[in-house]
Write a structure and sequence with these properties.
By secondary structure, the chain is α/β, with parallel strands linked by helices. It has a single domain, classed as Alkaline Phosphatase, subunit A. Helix content is 27%, strand content 17%. The protein has 14 helices and 16 strands. The strands form 3 sheets. It has a 10-stranded mixed beta sheet, with helices on both faces. The protein has a 4-stranded antiparallel beta sheet with strand order 13-14-15-16, with helices on one face. The protein has a two-stranded antiparallel ribbon with strand order 5-6. The longest helix is centred in the middle third of the chain and has 27 residues. The protein is globular, with a radius of gyration of 23 Å. The protein binds 2-acetamido-2-deoxy-beta-D-glucopyranose (NAG) (5 copies). One 2-acetamido-2-deoxy-beta-D-glucopyranose binds next to loops.
């Protein structure tokens, strides 16, 4: 046989081996929007029971110290790129519907890496990483299919977004299927996304691995006028929650938990659950108060969304796989949102890129060993603050929004009746049932596991440190997770070291472009009352 006839065979078999490898794990990444630290029951909440999410944590690995950026757009940009948001100019205030900005198109995104090694890639839900031009959209950036809202949030029933411009409110449909306005959709948006995700799983050709991201609207506020929206019968079930606002929020979280149950059940029905890695994470801390308040609670952590304090950035996170060897089911190493890209690629046997900020944590999580990460950086040059975590310490500088940096949400904990039995709720959940069917149920002694994620600290301290342009606050976040005690004058040399590290990061920043005045060409009235692309 001549060389020329052998070559195609070699190339072809090489292609089969590396690109169509059905043994690669499927990946299902579920992201919640503005979910608080204290809003899942595996973190100790007695108010909001999340048995499906909890079951994944108890049989997988719950993260004790998972950190994200403090705001939606920066977090999503970091998740998709493996880079700190300030390296792509995506830091600071989230994208508005009429803003012409996106993750630079020369930066490769998470789904592109998976697509390149043979995965089918699908996004169901929120994008919020650029939607003014077609080339910024999910289907131009590595996703085979897309259905969802392109901006920061959407009305749970109408699928509209309303922005208030100088001359009054403008409103339009914000839900799209690939490139087309999704006029055909009906129902509560969390159910809509669940059904679409289940359909992706049902229709999946199992000879290829699956990469599915489900980025829920829940439990973000539905808008700045409608705010909280949930089916009334679900709200009614939660009458034991004292605060009516919190009750509504809890119903939104319950629907999110139900969604996790349905998605895991669909994986089981398809027969692919045992070879699927599932991630459940929050994009940033809960938005207890302020614009788009959703009555989430990060209690006892200090601060909320848009703040560099722990409540804004230390968030819910877990990883589940039937093949994990971490029998502790809890990992307290630092894990950052930028770490998902290299960690998931590594889990799939793909060499992660090196030009990123994320580090591969797969082995550390799997074997319950030390985190590969010592430093985490948050820069919001739009609001005007920055923070750096270095070992056990976090330093905050600049001017975080003070009203977002206090102890909030403690007063939302009231009960006026008894919640259902936690243990029964777990045993009745769809995820527990699915785990049972593949012989992966967990020890019913999970309450001791739950104790590991509960943070005990003093959320009533009054004389707490706020930095300014000229002063910093330094906290030991391991010993003092509530950030009550400023140590900057105790450890001046550490402050100097950390400031120097932060200055280096500052110098690598692409400044956040302040939103220009609203681009009127984006007006939905010019696009059949949809928020469609308007440039090109
Ligand atoms: C979206 O695009 C993909 C890829 O072209 C296609 O397979 C899929 O059918 C499209 N979906 C819709 C609803 O048009
Ligand atoms: C867990 O350990 C077993 C036995 O050592 C090994 O075969 C398996 O690959 C490990 N799983 C992972 C995810 O590393
Ligand atoms: C959990 O922690 C609480 C309070 O520290 C303790 O009373 C309880 O016994 C612990 N439960 C388990 C199952 O370890
Ligand atoms: C702090 O710095 C920011 C950014 O340079 C500036 O906008 C702000 O006015 C300063 N604050 C004070 C109190 O000087
Ligand atoms: C324009 O919007 C209406 C709903 O208001 C929809 O039924 C129609 O299909 C849309 N037309 C186009 C061309 O998208």
């Amino acid at each position: 046989m001549g060389l020329l006839s052998v070559l195609p065979v070699l190339i072809f078999t090489g292609f089969i081996a590396s690109y169509c490898d059905a043994s690669k794990p499927n990946i299902v990444f579920i992201l919640a929007d503005d979910l608080g630290w204290n809003d899942v029951s595996f973190h100790g909440s007695d108010q909001i029971l999340t048995p499906n999410i909890d079951s994944l944590a108890y049989s997988g690995v719950a993260f004790g110290r998972y950190y994200s950026h403090a705001i939606c757009t920066p977090s999503r940009a970091a998740l998709l790129t493996g880079k700190y948001s300030y390296k792509t100019g995506m830091q600071g205030n989230p994208l508005g519907m009429s803003e012409d900005r996106s993750i630079p198109t020369n930066v490769r995104l998470l789904p592109q890496y998976f697509k390149d090694v043979g995965y089918s890639t699908h996004l169901v839900g929120k994008w919020h990483a650029g939607s003014s031009r077609r080339e910024y959209l999910p289907t131009s950036r590595g996703f085979d299919t897309y259905i969802g809202h392109r901006g920061g949030y959407i009305d749970y029933y109408e699928y509209t977004v309303t922005e208030v411009w100088e001359d009054g409110p403008v409103s339009g449909l914000a839900l799209f299927r690939n490139l087309t306005a999704a006029w055909d959709v009906e129902g509560y948006i969390t159910d809509v996304y669940t059904e679409e995700a289940v359909k992706v799983i049902d229709d999946h050709d199992s000879s290829n691995p699956l990469f599915l991201m489900v980025t829920h609207n829940a439990p973000h506020a539905g808008g700045d006028t409608v705010v909280l929206q949930a089916p009334p019968e679900v709200v009614r079930e939660l009458r034991y929650i004292e605060s009516p606002d919190r009750r509504m929020y809890a119903a939104m979280v319950k629907k999110l938990d139900d969604s996790v149950g349905d998605i895991v059940k669909a994986l089981q029905d398809k027969g692919i659950l045992e070879n699927t890695i599932i991630v459940f994470a929050a994009d940033n801390g809960g938005m207890t108060t302020g614009l788009f308040a959703n009555y989430a609670s990060n209690y006892p952590l200090r601060g909320i969304k848009m703040s560099p304090y722990e409540g804004g950035v230390r968030v819910v996170g877990l990883l589940w796989s039937a093949n994990l060897n971490n029998t502790n089911h809890y990992w307290d190493g630092y894990m950052h949102v930028t770490d998902w890209l290299p960690t998931l690629l590594s889990a799939a046997g793909v060499e992660p890129p090196t030009d990123i900020d994320g580090v591969d944590q797969w082995e550390s999580i799997n074997s319950n060993s030390a985190s590969q990460r010592k430093t985490m950086v948050e820069i919001d040059d739009y609001t005007g603050y920055a923070s750096i975590t270095y070992g056990d310490y976090k330093m905050i500088t600049g001017e975080p929004i003070q009203s977002h940096s206090e102890y909030l949400g403690g007063d939302l904990r009231g009960l006026i009746g008894s919640p259902p039995s936690y243990i029964d709720t777990i045993a009745d959940s769809k995820v527990f049932g699915a785990l049972h069917s593949i012989g992966r149920t967990f020890d019913m002694d999970f309450l001791s596991l739950r104790n590991k994620t509960i943070i005990n600290c003093d959320a009533s301290a009054t004389s707490i440190c706020y930095p300014s342009n000229d002063t910093v606050c330094l906290f030991n976040i391991i010993e003092d997770p509530c950030e009550t005690t400023d140590l900057s004058s105790t450890y001046p040399e550490l402050v100097t070291t950390m400031q120097a590290l932060l200055d280096i990061e500052m110098s690598k920043r692409i400044p956040r472009i302040a939103p220009a005045s609203i681009d009127r060409m984006s007006a939905p009235s010019l696009h059949n009352y949809t928020w469609d692309t308007w440039i090109n």
